[in-house]
Design a protein that fits this description.
By secondary structure, the chain is mostly beta strands. The protein is about 0% helix and about 40% strand.
């Protein structure tokens, strides 16, 4: 069977569904189907598709199929529902396909039929929301239709799309730079990061171009400011005033004066570094990791440099005076003072040798801690001739380039003492006297 043409008549009848008089988006469509020029009779399957153009274009919504539609004397009636958004006011065209009920392929009838204005009564579903000018009906009332409205008549939330952009009369929620000035009085709070001059990278960001000041805080006389450049950042006073640091709402604890003096515990530092201990404890502490050298350095000119410091478990934790990597003097916790054996000025060694050649007392400045005074202090004594007061003392360091002195310790009559080096590390002592006169004191400088 060949279906030649479908004559359509849109009947302005809306289907009542649900409660009585409740309007829906469904409407009744009535058409006339002919077969070879004669009115069709029987049951047919019909498909309906809504388009925005008479040919081509875009389909609106989905295709609706009505199976086994009764056709009598060519007339059929169906209910269609493409939804409220299908009819915004633009042209709409209905494309119909038909086949005998229950089988075969659909034949698309041409041309598409333009929908007349009657179904646009569906737009009245939006009339109540248009009364409230809600976001569901933006542009229901056009600008040209409103001359003015009192501000007191506006309430509720204004849709973002209803607020004109690009105005400098108010702050706008936008990532674009807004060219406007504002002056706000009163208190407020900001719930997120704030940036002045660019994109925020923290709770408060001040972004400048090139070398410039950022934050300034002033009472009209004293001004505190921050400054950044390609070489670094500054924080300090812009006016001729000291910069104070404090904690716990206290008085100044650290002070940087306009002349560059730095004070800890004082607000009026008199030197480039002025430390004032207000607790009676040490004014300064230099602490380094275990095994490293804790030091402070004194330098006059470019090369004259002394280091004073200490290192744990080194030379019995002595206080060292160092120059060019050499410890020229050390004071240990036992108050022993020592210096290198090659240096002058301090005693290097002291011995009290008994008449039998044993060591009674000793001190060796080259040893640290108790070892410096614990017998035999690194020395050894050989009695060359028994009973004649002749001894050779061997030292753990060079002594033939040092000053030394030997004194007989028990004088009861005749006696004299001679001391002279016999080798790099040895000194011979010869006394003249009785057996009780052989005790000798020896000091090396």
């Amino acid at each position: 069977m060949r279906l030649k043409k479908l004559l359509m008549l849109i009947v302005a009848v809306f289907v009542l569904c649900g409660m009585a008089f409740a309007q829906t988006t469904s409407f009744t469509y009535q058409g006339r189907l002919t077969d070879s020029g004669n009115p069709a009779n029987g049951n047919y399957d019909l498909q309906f598709a809504l388009w925005d153009n008479s040919s081509g274009g875009a389909q609106i919504g989905s295709t609706q199929t009505r199976n086994s539609v009764a056709v009598s004397a060519g007339i059929f009636t169906v209910a269609l529902d493409f939804g409220v958004s299908a009819f915004p006011g633009a042209d709409r065209f209905l494309e119909i396909s038909v086949r005998p009920a229950g089988g075969g392929s659909f034949t698309t009838l041409a041309p598409r039929q333009q929908i007349s204005s009657t179904p646009y009564a569906i737009r009245t579903l939006s009339a109540t929301t248009a009364d409230g000018l809600s976001s569901a009906c933006v542009a229901c009332v056009q600008d040209s239709q409103i001359n003015s409205i009192a501000g007191s008549k506006v309430s509720g939330t204004i849709p973002v799309a209803g607020v004109p952009g690009g105005s400098n009369n108010y702050i706008q929620n936008t990532q674009s730079l807004q060219s406007a000035s504002f002056n706000i009085s009163g208190s407020g709070a900001l719930g997120g990061p704030l940036s002045i001059g660019g994109t925020p990278i923290s709770a408060l960001t001040v972004r400048v171009s090139g070398d410039a000041f950022g934050l300034t805080h002033t009472n009209g006389s004293t001004t505190l400011g921050s400054y950044v450049s390609s070489t670094g950042g500054w924080l300090g006073t812009i006016t001729n005033h000291p910069l104070f640091f404090f904690t716990n709402n206290s008085q100044p604890q650290v002070t940087l004066s306009p002349n560059g003096n730095f004070g800890i515990g004082t607000s009026t530092p008199s030197q480039q570094l002025h430390v004032n201990s207000t607790s009676g404890n040490a004014a300064a502490l230099i602490q380094t990791p275990a095994g490293s050298f804790a030091q402070y350095q004194l330098r006059s000119g470019a090369s004259n440099s002394w280091i004073v410091g200490t290192q744990d478990n080194f030379k019995n934790n002595a206080l060292l005076f160092r120059n060019s990597g050499i410890d020229f003097m050390a004071i240990d916790p036992a108050a022993n003072v020592s210096q290198p054996s090659s240096a002058n000025g301090l005693v290097k060694a002291m011995l009290l040798v008994n008449a039998n050649g044993s060591i009674n007392l000793c001190y060796n400045s080259q040893l640290a801690g108790n070892a410096a005074t614990t017998l035999p202090c690194g020395f050894s004594v050989v009695q060359n001739f028994q009973g004649e007061g002749d001894y050779t003392v061997t030292f753990p360091f060079q002594v033939n380039n040092r000053f030394f002195s030997a004194t007989q310790g028990d004088v009861s009559g005749n006696g004299g003492t001679a001391a002279f080096p016999t080798g790099t590390n040895t000194i011979r002592i010869v006394t003249d006297g009785g057996a009780s006169e052989h005790r000798v004191y020896l000091i090396v400088f």
